[in-house]
Amino acid sequence: MRTVDVAEVEAVVAKLCVEANHALREDHVAALERGRLAEESPIGREVFDRLLENARVSAAERIAFCQDTGYAVLFLTIGQDVHFTGGSLAEALDRGVAQGYRDGYLRASLVRSPVDRVNTGDNTPAMVHYDLVPGTGIELTLLVKGAGCDNMSALRMLTPAAGVEGMRRFVVETIEKAGPSASPPVTVGIGMGGTFDRAAVLAKRALTRDPTGSPSPDPKLAELEAELVDAINATGIGPAGFGGTVTTVAVHVEAFPTHIAAFPVAINLDCHSHRVRSVTL
To answer: Taking a C-beta distance cutoff of 8 angstroms, is the pair 24, 104 a contact?
Structure first.
């Protein structure tokens, strides 16, 4: 048995909120640099140059990379032999988000509900996903998710008859519909399988893969990811939607067992402001 005070988790969450919003992960900056080299359009290369300069300035000056500082989406993988003390873990997570957004001078973007659109004032509640595993470890990942790209995300309950080809068409259709609204170059998270809700969580979690653009350990999924990168870039939407050869810098696919009569597919887009941080406690 391992005992952890929730105050420790709260402090870590606050720090991650600031770090994620102020400094893009180095691996994602490297993905943008690779995208810049691959982009054939002059205006597309200029967009990449400005994104890279923005990343440099935001990290150096400790200011938000993007004005939309997003939802705080938290993934917690918790060993079943961990016992939390000092109060509610859920409340500690929200306090950590609130503190981080205050400390980092980050915009509070959440309203109380879609119909009661009064700002909660501190960017809480956090959107939290828990997984229990054997042992005493705690892994915490923060994904800062803006609304522009989230609004362009999609989920479809395909049938097995549609197959992988139907999934490919759905992905390209979603990218084309999003156009510039998802603020490309995008990172694409795809969840396949499970139930309606599980597919969406898989897609969101796929966005947190480290490093950006690393292939799935499953050879079939890795091949599919590479094919989808080519198909998406062939749309010609390009950086910021100005046209070009690089619309995505990465496609990450996660799969899960599903019903014999189902083929759920969720597509979660993340914009050029791909903000992720992880820590092991």
So the answer is: no
